[in-house]
């Protein structure tokens, strides 16, 4: 329906809105048309003020009706907007409200400083104060570096120590410029990457499955297998140790069970791990078997060459306990690089990097070892003069056959 809004300076603005539109959204449209911030608007209909939460139809507004927009002057005490020596606000609430009313400043902050914009839009004033202090420290550090650079320019050119400092300053400047360019052209690189999860059913039980093209095997935890009614099918002859970043005990293998992806059923086999931090991982073996495509352009997993497509879950749809585990794993990676995925027919962009954690063994280097005497076989081959890693790979290649592995290594 169409409504007409008359402003306090006698301008007439026609808007095409839904009858159930909220008053707050109408104010947002008027902010674009009039440059009067949403907080400074007061909308009246039939002489009565309308609240932001009201619906147009709820207050009796119909097609062709007219309403009045009044512009409210908001007076701000400048003392309330002052900052303390540490960068925090003297009156954080007044400071927050003042910035909120400036739509241009908020739009810029949303682009350049999402953390600050979220703090300004949120209710946690202590978080806002901490961010203001942090930004103040960054500014002070930047000024200190500038002063050091000026001092180095006037330093003795034959002073070896001064030249080393100049070299370090030039190198750091290049790093800072590279960081600033990344903020401008590649800001998403600084955001936390959400791992790839899809909805699946295993033996009729719905699960959030982690899709990991860098994991060698499809893995299910003991507790998850029990919940899905599959633990009775566990073949303990396939006991062993999973070695990757850390290690975990392999309890055995479930040779075949049905999984439902989308509206179709597929046969799947699982390695069962005693890994409480990991529930279900859809690995490279089943990705290959069912001709899966990780399509990051469309953000879907295609199965069976495309006969089924299921969307990757948004962060809000991933259970909180899984998100917390991922955050802990990523925090543990602060001192080391991420393991790159090998990709399983990844389309356009390639698969995501995976977090590493000593208890999280389903990574790109997952080695699954059969038989309780495997370590003894590795030791024998090492005693013959072979590298331990080569011995493990050879035994894997020949399914634990010690003689064939030795022959292969001697022949190499």
CATH evolutionary superfamily of the largest domain: Acid Proteases
Cα Rg: 31 Å
Number of folding domains?
Answer: 4
Largest sheet: 6 strands, mixed, barrel
Number of H- or I-type helical stretches: 12
Helix and strand composition category: alpha+beta
What's the CATH topology name of the largest domain? Cathepsin D, subunit A, domain 1
On the 0 to 100 scale, the average pLDDT is 77
What are the SSEs and their pairings?
Elements: E1 2-7, E2 12-16, H1 23-34, E3 41-45, E4 48-49, E5 66-71, H2 92-101, H3 103-112, H4 114-121, H5 125-153, H6 160-185, E6 197-202, E7 205-211, E8 219-221, H7 222-227, E9 240-244, E10 246-261, E11 264-273, E12 280-282, H8 284-289, E13 293-295, E14 300-303, E15 308-311, H9 320-332, E16 367-368, H10 374-383, H11 388-397, H12 402-411
Parallel strand pairs: 1-5, 7-12, 8-11
Antiparallel strand pairs: 1-2, 3-4, 3-5, 6-7, 6-10, 8-12, 9-10, 9-16, 10-11, 13-14, 14-15
Domain UBA: 371-412
Main location: cytoplasm
Subcellular location: Cytoplasm
